[in-house]
């Protein structure tokens, strides 16, 4: 298995450093390097990488808009944000574009490698320093209604819905969840819709991010 990566960063030294290190990994192939948002969108269209490692502060077009356009035009390409911005005003819009995760540039190199591999499998990735900052901002109606606390959130879900929520943290599709829980795929779809409605969340990615916060330690691996 080879993960084809397109790197996007407007700082050449940073870009070359990341490219050199990731290029040493036997299962990574660096297919291109972009220095602005417009370039990364165009290169995604021509190269069709498995994943884009996306900086946010870039000229011509920022990383958030570039991520949004990639999600709309090339949904098979995953976007993993890699930036120095740790504030909610950047985190939430970036994740709402459909990005598979949000990592900070201060992350240890080996942790970045593992995050890329895990994101490639469909697992949501969050830098540990920013996970706790997301909870109150995940709902599209957060300004109108506060999200429930951890205990209240869990009490809203049925035991089966809680099992489905755990599976969502693994980035599994409805079909894969159905196989894991030995239920019909249609049943899983119904449970996912119910979970999103009860927790006032917009999509599966938000549900997975929410679950990272509200589930007891170790539950995600259960």
UniProtKB/TrEMBL annotation:
Keywords: DNA-binding, Phosphoprotein, Transcription, Transcription regulation. SMART domains: HTH_LUXR (SM00421), REC (SM00448). It comes from the Bacteria. CDD domains: LuxR_C_like, REC_NarL-like. InterPro entries: CheY-like_superfamily, NreC/VraR/RcsB-like_REC, Sig_transdc_resp-reg_receiver, Tscrpt_reg_LuxR_C, WalR-like. The modification 4-aspartylphosphate is found at residue 55. This is Response regulator. It comes from Cohnella boryungensis.
């Amino acid at each position: 298995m080879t993960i084809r990566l397109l790197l996007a960063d407007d700082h050449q030294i940073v870009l070359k450093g990341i490219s050199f290190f990731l290029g040493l990994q036997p299962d990574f192939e660096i297919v291109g390097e972009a220095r602005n948002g417009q370039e990364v969108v165009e290169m995604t269209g021509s190269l069709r990488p498995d994943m884009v490692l996306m900086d946010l502060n870039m000229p011509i077009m920022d990383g958030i808009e570039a991520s949004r356009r990639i999600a709309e035009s090339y949904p098979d390409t995953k976007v993993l944000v890699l930036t120095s911005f740790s504030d909610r005003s950047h985190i939430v819009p970036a994740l709402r574009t459909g990005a598979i995760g949000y990592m900070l540039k201060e992350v240890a190199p080996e942790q970045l490698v593992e995050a890329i591999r895990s994101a490639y499998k469909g697992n949501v990735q969050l830098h540990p320093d920013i996970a706790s900052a997301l909870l109150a901002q995940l709902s599209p109606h957060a300004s109108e209604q506060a999200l429930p606390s951890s205990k209240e959130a869990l009490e809203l879900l049925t035991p089966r819905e809680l099992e489905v929520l755990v599976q969502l943290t693994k980035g599994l599709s409805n079909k894969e969840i159905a196989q894991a829980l030995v239920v019909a795929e249609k049943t899983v779809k119904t449970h996912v819709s119910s979970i999103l409605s009860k927790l006032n969340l917009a999509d599966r990615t938000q549900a997975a991010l929410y679950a990272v916060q509200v589930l007891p330690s170790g539950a995600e691996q259960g």
